[in-house]
Amino acid sequence: MTRETLQAWLWCLAAVALAVVVLLVRERLAVVRLRRRITELEGLARDRDEALRDLAEVRLPALLDGGPAAAANVPVPPSLVGSGYALSLAAVIRSFTTSVETTRARADRTARNALKASMRALQGLANEQQLAISAMQDRHDDPAVLQDLLEIDHTNAQFGRRAQAIAVLCGSWPGRQRAASTLLDVVRGATSRIRDYRRVEAHSQVGSGVVSRAVEPVVLAVAELLDNAARHSQPNTTVQVGIQPAHNGAAIVIDDAGVGLLDQEVRRAAELLSGHRPVEIADLGDPPQFGFAVIGALAARYGFRVSVDTQSPYGGVRAVLFLPGELLTRVEEDPAPAVDAAPARSAARPVPAAPAPAPAAGGAPAVTPPTALATTANGLPRRRRRQLGAHAPVAAPPVPAEEPAGRSPEQAAAMIGAFARGTRSGRAAGEPAPAARPAPASEPPADEETLTVRRPPAAGTPSDGSRPDHEGNPAT
């Protein structure tokens, strides 16, 4: 083999070796790229599986529990941001959110309608029961029976308030129209609707009153605040209520000595009391707590404000209900009515009954000279207001002229029973014979006055011959 041939073979071998090296390098790079791609695809698959798992286990349950805001808090893997898979997941979440919101709205609407209908029926039953209790109070004058009837009447008032509050939360109106009343009478009316009314002490520095359309809503809101304060404080403590003037309105301040509220509870209460967002029944807990939600609905509807974000001086909660000037009015004091005139009824200043006369010597009741009875246009005798000591004879012992400061429920019931017996006896003695009364007993004349025995109100509540409602105000 010549030298030239050998060199040619060497060059061929070198070229082949170089080609093999290049191919090996390229193959190595391709393998590296493929491995990297496989790794990326595996990571992408894992991210997709993780996103799908989050969708099924986190996002969709969050949508069911807390709404779209809770589902948006779950982060998306960085590898899926902007990808078609992420867009598809977002489309699924939007569809599911729409379905959930529609279902929740339908369920809440159904629950509200069912509760509203049920509470209306219960309110009707409570009103019928109230009429039955009033009729029983008219028929019975035994102090023990009257005391039991007063307790039943008070329990029925609480029952009616609960039904009324739930109905208001479900979109119903309070359902009662009251005459304009002073702020102190509003607080007294609210106190008469709670269980622990004896623990409430109210004092006022304001002489103005609440306009007619806002009396019942404010009474209901104050009753919920008082009930909340009494239930979350010790039974041996008092609930202090102060009515204070403000620059452009008045404020009802309620202080209790209870356990107070945590920061999270204060924020939740502020959200409910603001009334800015509709509250679903399912969001009120199990069992549901309606109090703050009812107050927020009334505040948003009638224009007053309520806050519970301040600590009371007694370590509990200070609740402040602020009434703007447009909800306040001046309630004039009515003059005392004449004896032969129809009694004027005022929600602000009821006229107290006159004291009973002292018995005559020998135990016989004092006899008042008979007076001529006025007649109506049809010739029927017209009854006049019967006050203690105004007519005789009185079969039962008279009521003491001065009332003791600390009368017990038993003493109050005995006094009311004696008053009922004496009034009934006096009316029977002063009425003409049945032949002269052609009018049926079931339908008395329009100006006839009847006596209704009511539950003794909270301390300081005025009383008169008219029939007050649970708030101490005559119904209009």
Folded structure, characterized:
By secondary structure, this protein is α+β, with helices and mostly antiparallel strands. Among the domains are: 75 residues; 216 residues, Histidine kinase-like ATPase, C-terminal domain (Heat Shock Protein 90). A 5-stranded mixed β-sheet has the order 2-4-5-7-6. Strands 1-3-8 form a 3-stranded antiparallel β-sheet. A hairpin with a 5-residue loop joins strand 6 and strand 7.
> Which structural class fits the helix and strand makeup?
alpha+beta
- The low-confidence runs, each spanning 5 or more residues with pLDDT under 50, are 336-373, 383-405, 433-476
The main β sheet shows up as:
5 strands, mixed
CATH architecture assignment of the domain at 114-329: 2-Layer Sandwich
Global morphology: rod-shaped
> According to CATH, what is the topology of the domain at 114-329?
Heat Shock Protein 90
Report the end-to-end length measured between terminal Cα atoms.
Answer: 135 Å
Q: Rg, please?
A: 39 Å
Order of helices and strands: HHHHEHEEHEEHHEEEH
CATH first level of the domain at 114-329: Alpha Beta
The side-by-side strand order for the widest beta sheet comes to: 2-4-5-7-6
Number of strands: 8
Q: What oligomeric state is this?
A: single chain
- Could you report the average pLDDT, rounded to the nearest whole number? 74
The helix content, as a percent range, equals 40-55%
Going by CATH, the homologous superfamily of the domain at 114-329 would be Histidine kinase-like ATPase, C-terminal domain
Compute the number of helices: 9
Report the portion of residues in β strands: 5-15%
